[in-house]
Design brief:
The chain is mainly beta and 131 residues long. The protein is 6% helix and 48% strand.
Length: 131
């Protein structure tokens, strides 16, 4: 069974940078798509970025493209989300997810429903952007 644990959240100033980590255990991520979703207070889950762990294909939502970077470290079985130029609207609980991507492109995966279509979820890490 795959387990996902997010870390790296916290309080940052507007315009600041932060790196989130999604550490996986139990199974290698090599056969999964890994996605970052976020949930702002009182709102639903929004896809942020996804990566095909095997081939490195990536997808970024329009709202964060150019500010966030998703990457992987095969040696650590970990996916990172590097965030710069933080804005107040980036305040949210960030969740790491994983889904088997047998015949699904990473862009398609990242447009799927957080609750219904993902296979594994982390418990989330809170990012607060405030002065």
């Amino acid at each position: 069974q795959l387990q996902l644990v997010e870390s790296g959240g916290g309080l940052v100033q507007p315009g600041g940078s932060l790196r989130l980590s999604c550490a996986a255990s139990g199974l290698t991520l090599d056969y999964y798509g890994v996605g970052w979703f976020r949930q702002a207070p009182g709102k639903g889950h929004e896809a942020v970025s996804c990566i095909n762990y095997s081939d490195g294909s990536t997808y970024y939502s329009d709202s964060i493209k150019g500010r966030f970077t998703i990457s992987r470290d095969r040696a650590k079985n970990t996916v990172y989300l590097e965030m710069s130029g933080r804005k107040p609207e980036d305040t949210a609980v960030y969740y790491c997810t994983a889904r088997g991507v047998l015949s699904t492109t990473i862009s398609t995966m990242c447009k799927m429903d957080y609750s219904r279509d993902m296979d594994y979820w982390g418990s989330g890490t809170l990012v607060t952007v405030s002065s």
